[in-house]
Amino acid sequence: MLLFFLFPFFPDVTGNGPYWVHFSHLMDLLSDQLMHYYLIYSTTMKSNIKSVFSAIMAFIMILGFSASSTGQSGNNSGLEGRIISAEDGDPIPFINLMIEDTDIGTSTDVDGFFQLRNLPSGKVSLQVSGMGYQTKILELDLEPGETRSLELEVGFSAVELGGVVITANPTASGFRYQSDMSFVGEALQKRSEVSFGEMLDGEPGLAMRSMGSAPARPVIRGMDGDRILILEHGERMGDVSESGAGHSLTMDPLSANRVEVVKGPASLMYGSSALGGVINLMTSDIPEDWEPGSSGVVSAQGATMNNMGAGFARYTLGNTDWAVTARMAYRKSGDITTPEGKMPGTYMDHYDGAVGFGLQRANLNGGVSVSFNDQTYGLPEHIDDPYENIEVRQQRIGMQGRFNYERQGFFDKAQWRFNVTHLDQKEIEIEFEDGAWEEDVELSHDKLAFSSTITLQHRPHRIFERGAFGLNIHGHNLDIGGDEAYTPGEKRFNVGAFTFQEIPLSPSLRMQAGARIDFQHTGALANHVFPDADQSRSGANFTGSAGLNYRPHKEVEIGGQFARSHRNPMVEELFANGPHLCSGVYEVGSTDLKDETGHGTDLFVNWTHRLFQFEISGFANWFSNYIIFEPTGMTDEDSGLPVFEYMGDEARFFGGEIALGFAPIGGLSLNVGMDYVNARRTSESREYLPFIPPFRFTGEAEYDFGSGWVGTRVRAANKQSRVAPEESMTDGYALMGLTMGYRMDYNGRHVIIFRAENVFNTKYRDHLSRVEDRHFPMPGRNFNLAYRLYFN
Known about the structure:
The chain contains seven helices and 40 strands.
């Protein structure tokens, strides 16, 4: 088993490197061949892509309804009857019935009726189960040729959301149509880092864009910027992290108690921009589930690589009807240490906090919270000049609310969420002149943003399972100022209506279908650099998705979806013309850029066994007017910064992830993960797109002995030679880490976590690093110690 675990790192018999490198080369050859065939038929595909997409949707529906009618055929012997709710006597539609130790099963119709044919005579066990209902097993003794009538009552049960990613499905049905993942509790603590980008980096399909630790931001399947929506409890955060490599998220990772990731298009639920996926950050700022009395958590963390220290505390007090909570986090670090020494300008000083109130009534629960964030961090821009620094100072104040209401009737559940924020961010150039330090505000962002969603869930009706209708409104007013403002400001308003529906087709097959329409208005706001900026755009955008979920066996789940996505250009992409110190580049935009549209597919297979869990997923996306942020190879004479230009072209992405977890004996777990992305233009140039992560491999081994654990982790990346013109290649690397932890129950729950990262102090460069010319390597050896106490 250990040999299998380490196999990808063994040199092959030719001595040409580890096997995982050859796997990456094989994927490259495959992608080139696929591109060859794609180009042969590209003209036909482009002209008929809408027709093809519609045909695929129709095929899914025909396939599903055929499976439904086939699965429910048979003769007139067996069981028949009705399933009703034990609480109110209402019929339960689409609940599953299965004869144990056979392949015979069905589901109830819209009125709760069912029929089971071709049953064996004698003793049989009938199992009734469904998401949100208690499982019921009935032992029966059937006579030959008997058709027995039954009326069974089934009670409700709470849905365990630990493994259900509610970001991907508004009804939390538990059925998946695209690849996703979630991190909660101890799994989140083990990954605690300075930023969410560093925390999630290395998970299958997830990388990070980095320019130091503070502004590190997640990348999903090679997509960055506002193609990845980072939400706070399902609503937009209101920061500007998507618009520049040096812009950070406005939340400390210690504040989150759950992180959900949806890989692939998610425009249906969250509107324009979510072409690449969604990351939803959740906190306990609005209490939801609490025990009467008081409870809390205290944690501390330290690291050697950047002399980092951090602390966090939360306290909650409540009774049966209400609760109040407050939290505070503080983090301070120096410059990052690399194998070649310090990387200047990578320090940070960050604190945030929140207070919140929650209530519970018979049919209403929810609450409001107010949060603040204050962050100062440096950027490694003028690395070779000790008398010139770039510093970002950021303050954000926000108020969010969340209310859930339940009632009798067709629409029996409703949720209202909102988030209102104000962000003040300044990019400051600090120079030492005439014996004193002088500061100039080169760029400022003053942003007032709001985001709100109302979702109505309906009860099962006819062919439809529980579904949802929703209305989403979001917008912002962004004023851009400073001596080197390189764009005008922007005002944006968007209103969108959507629906998400699931249709059970058989006991093992169901279909998902959804549609969304958005009306958006965007306008430029003049400033002293762009005094005549008054252009505006308005339009309607349509997005939709259709998918299938198939469970041929209780251990196997297969899911897939086809989706159409849409994205409007950002203000930087349209108007940029000047140096952006926070990103270390001179940006050039174009008002001729058109809206991006994408058509894509996702497919995954998950096999969960007592000893292992295996998931393989793949994706392919085709984009029209894909906006590329590409190096030109030129340097701006005045600023000395490399020139990057926004340009539009046809493009396609494809790739996939593999995750395997194996538990051969109690307490021992072995995990392997791999991901691959291939992205290039599909025009005549066939050039690769910039900033695409290379093939990567991760291997982990951990032994948990109850009161603690010990483990090791290996991360490897292939050489990235599939680069855009004027983009530098990066070499492959392999890193090793160690982890151990200890749990103790004494006046609360104590958890101590120790991590050693890059233990051999390996010098390497990450392909997504935005540090100029990637001259400086990534962080060196690091020892991280964390402590957390839960009390009540």
